[in-house]
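Run log, item B.
One chain of 99 residues. Sequence copied directly from the ordering sheet:
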Amino acid sequence: MSKVHLATGNIAAELIEMGRQLGGGEYGEVFEGRLRIGATTYMDVAIKTLRNEEEMQEWTKRDFLQEATVMLALSHPNIVRILGLSWTPRILMVQVELI
């Protein structure tokens, strides 16, 4: 089974279950979902998606990745925690705690 590498911020795409769309923004859409963290254990998460490569400009991808990098380094009880990034052929996703 693939592991979630929270220390490095890498999450295998097959561990993510996309749910319903919660909203959208400049970079893409936000969905509710579940992250498999064990054989039968799941964590509810929000998934912020980046539009596909054809729809985005290079600065959009750079800004999105810069935001994710900064957020991965933060740890504070009043800040929503980013669990990691998941790279897929179509889209890049950031998983954050679902509050």
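Observations after the first pass:
- The radius of gyration is 13 Å.
- The chain is about 15% helix and 40% strand.
Flagged for discussion on Thursday.
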